[in-house]
Amino acid sequence: MKILVCIKQVPDMESRFKPDSAGVWFSEADLAFRMNEYDEYAVEQAVRLKEQLGGEPELTVLSIGPDRVVEAMKKALAMGCDRGVQVQDPAVHLKDPWQIASIIAGFAQREKFDLIFTGLQSQDRGSAQVGVSVAEILGYSCATTVVGFEYADGVVTVKRELEGGIKGAVQLRTPALVTCQLGLNVPRYPTLPNIMKAKKKEILAIPVAELLHEEARAVTASFYPPAKKGGGIVLEGDVAAQVDKLLGILKEKTTVLR
Amino acid sequence: MKALLVGEYRDGKFLETSYELFGFAEQLGAETAMVLVGKEAELPQYGGKLYLADVGKYGEYNPDLHKKLVLAAVEREKPDYVVFVHSSYGWDLAPRVAAGLKTAQISEVVAVVEGGFELPCCNSKMRRTVKPQGAVAVVTIQGGAFTGIKPGGTPQVQPLDAEGTAGVTFLGYEPAEEKGVDLAKAEVIVSAGRGIGKMDNVPVIAALAKALGGELGASRPVVDGGWVSHGHQVGTTGQTVSPKLYVACGISGAIQHLAGMKKSGFIVAINKDKDAPIGEVADVLVVADVMQFVPALTAKLAK
């Protein structure tokens, strides 16, 4: 059995974001990068499936981007993936979700994976399109927003998270793709021996031009902070003074303090 | 300009959120038609053209066939935009339809702006304007971003059918977990977010809730991490609340959380990140370390 996990490296979301010189995405100066949170659930689920099947499946982790994405892949390898594929693209931020999907599908077509795991969405772009589009290009069955996953004999049974806490149970046959939602599992921390082992695992580099044959269907015109609605009071400074000011405001504006 | 709106149907009912599609179409200045996998006995209050496929035949969740049905309606209607709500139904189906049409999809639109559509990005901390290339575009709109409009009237029903095999079998719904506490009745809710740091700090937030005579709420990461039970979760996948006072402790303000609490009477957010999206809805934003500020506030209230 062959399994692919697709991961993205994204900035820490606590960062302050500033537009880049072109004004269409963030400047990378002063940003720390990590694995997209949704993708950590995808990696964990793939590793659990490999363990369930006695270690037989081969787990490939793929990421598209500049050389910094290798760091995120190393984490996935330390969590239990077998080999990495970096699609080298310093301008990945200028690709639209369809192009990203076509790059992944281009690679997957060569390898004929039985099962593909992706995150539901990335934390920075959040289009929630790439996974489903990969499945569409490959003709795979696909279920999104997965918070429960079981596999037996070529049949995948998942729980999809719907609004209001309701779940929808869905079954699909391999080859299949699932997009993973927060809460699917508890991703493991890589252990030191596994981090050391991961250093020896293969990471294949493929130039993006080899896999990308699609034009962008959507283009980002500008990137900017949201318009401030205003009206909100911001309290900064000394904690004791903040407490007094807040209590004053609550007494004046609400009826909850008696 | 014409927009084909894809309505949503769940558990035998037309979803109210689908009326927000009309709010978006109005912003766009587009004529409308709707496509729905539903049934004749439960139609939307809309006097326009409704392409209706039978939910008994096609199911409520059957994306491969729903895709074919929407594509069949597009073929007949020839719209400029195909519009979904950005929901578990919409974000699942829209990319399939966009792939079928070989066209752009623009996800989670919050506004129609000059030169394109405005979308949130970077965990809602930033925005970008995106422009679709080509003649037709598939769009999903963020829930709550556009006002729901009930056009009224009875639809002119156009029966819709499609053929194909389903790659996905729907087995059934699983109800939401029991609500531990009915947050909807609480006058004050103090919620814990990931910013509290660790599970051991939950009692500190609970103590503030108690001092204010309120209930403990929580954001999703705190519930997923097992720090607080699901019964306390506020947001799209938890409870929607509107207390007199809502205090968000270390909650950055993901859209799913904001959707569940932004109608609260008065909102106080405590966060060390001045730019956190929670600041957009907060009446007061206290820029501080939650674990320093909250105990100080609780102590003062006890006096």
Q: Examine the coordinates and then state which fold CATH places here, giving the name of the CATH topology of the largest domain in chain B.
A: Rossmann fold
Shape call of chain A: globular
Helix/strand order of chain A, N-terminal first = EEEHEHEHEHEEEEHEEEH
How much helical structure, as a percent, in the residues of chain A? 25-40%
Strands of the biggest beta sheet of chain A: in what spatial order?
9-8-7-10-6-1-4-5-11
Q: Indicate the low-confidence ranges of chain A by residue numbers.
A: none
For the termini of chain B, the CA-CA separation is: 63 Å
The tally of structural domains of chain B comes to 2
Q: Give the oligomeric state.
A: heterodimer
Task: Let me know the largest β-sheet of chain B.
Answer: 7 strands, parallel
Q: Name the pair of protein chains with the most residues at their interface, and give those residue counts.
A: A-B, 84 and 93 residues
CATH class of chain A reads: Alpha Beta
User: Helix tally of chain B?
Assistant: 8
Uncertain residue segments of chain B? none
Q: Could you give the order of strands across the largest sheet of chain B?
A: 7-11-6-1-4-5-12
**Derived structural class of chain B:** alpha/beta
Report the sheet-strand fraction of chain A. 25-35%
The helix content of chain B is 10-25%
CATH topology term of chain A: Rossmann fold
Q: Estimate the strand proportion of chain B.
A: 25-35%
Question: H/E element string of chain B?
Answer: EEEHEEHHEHEEEEEEEEHEHEHEEH
